[in-house]
Amino acid sequence: MEYTSPSSFTAAWSYIENHALERQSPALQEARLRAAEAGLPQSSAAQTALLGALARWIDATSVIVIGTGTIVETIQLLDALGERGQVTTVDSSVQGIALIRTLLRGVPDGTQATLRAVNAPAHVFLPRLNAEDYDLIVVSGDADNYPAAYLQAPRLLKHSGMVVFTDMLALARQEDDGVLDPDNHSKKADIVRQLLDDVEADDRFDSTLTFSGTGLLLARKC
User: Fold this and answer.
1) Of 64, 132, 152, 196, which is least packed with CB atoms within 10 Å of its CB?
2) Between helices 26-37 and 94-103, what is the axis angle to 10°?
3) CA-CA distances (angstroms) from residue 81 to 30, 51, 64, 103, 155?
4) Which helix (H) or strand (E) covers residue 221, if one does?
5) What's the Cα-to-Cα distance from 143 to each of 3, 56, 148, 171, 210, rounded to whole Å?
6) Residue 83, phi then psi, degrees to nearest 5
7) CA nearest 87: which of 51, 123, 57?
8) What is the number of other CB atoms lying within 10 angstroms of the CB of residue 45?
């Protein structure tokens, strides 16, 4: 195997991210700007584009987005669903839900998918949803969202549906080195470490960890 220097990986990540930023729609550009002004961390542009492509590839019509202020993910997935389907965004912050609703005015006119915006903790709301009714679940934000989503995903997903856990390196807030530092035992770092072990050992899922944004764990329900 040929050696690639860390600086080359950093340059490659920056190149891909800048390319994705240039391809963002005006609605996504506005959403990212407004979220930044509100102090709400957002997924990288490349990661957001991948989530949209994934929704199209699996022909998703029912999506759940979990996380505090998941603005760009919600708008990207609404656009990916296009003329049909529903995105349910679950956000424990009033600020995040309000901003998502405001930014819906910028969603392209051809988008006819509907949005259900719910202000509630994931562990409270997810058990209320119908079983085997969802194609895709995207998880981000607070550490507590991850075990709550993992617990409910096998029940909520259709056969071959997918759950995607973002920020698996626990780097979203850039306050430390996340799971890259073995001595870091912040709540989120410890939770995503355990989650990775649990999902990879779970025969209900076919999973892979990939370096996109700050780390994605993709798990398909078998």
Assistant:
1) 132
2) 150
3) 20, 11, 12, 17, 22
4) strand 216-221
5) 34, 28, 9, 12, 19
6) -90, 5
7) 51
8) 23
Cβ proximity of 98 and 74 under 8 Å: no
Q: Is 60 exceeded by the pLDDT of residue 3?
A: no
pTM over 0.85: yes
Q: Tokens at residue 27, please?
A: 């609605």
Q: Is 128 exposed, middle or buried (0-12, 13-18, 19+ CB in 10 A)?
A: exposed
Please say whether the beta carbons of 214 and 173 come within 8 A: no
In this structure, the strands spanning 205-210 and 62-66 are unpaired
pLDDT in tens, 116-132: 888 888 999 999 999 99
Tokens at 56, concatenated = 């199209």
